Amino acid sequence: MSRSFVPLTTLTVVLLFALPANAQETTNYSLEKTADGYVRMNNKTGEMSICHEKLGQLACKVAAEERTLYEEDIADLKARLAKLEDTVAGMGKLPPVVRDNLPSDEDFEKGMNYMEKFMRRFMGLAKELDNENKDKTPGPAIPQKT
Fold this sequence. Notes:
The chain is an alpha+beta fold. Helices cover 58% and strands 16% of the residues.
């Protein structure tokens, strides 16, 4: 193979992939000429827009009823976004019911002191019982009578 064949093959492959993409893009909308300009229809959704030619370009405006629906959707999305932002801002924070019922630092320390005293006494009793059991020597085994 010659060197010029590789770029030509690459160019052909690129063109083959580009053509279907362009064909898809052009079928999304249909334009119909009117006396004042054009009507553009979205072939997927059926939405229509009125278009006027200005400086060699089409400027399209959404129909009034579609505009109202569009604005309602935006308002709904803004409300949902605000709710989500509040939820995210509240993550990691304790709810007021829990937060308001937590003990103060003073009460917490008092509770920890009680727990410490309890544990020290309990461990002291456990050591005493262990020492008592070590002091006792096991006597001879008493056979069981049945």
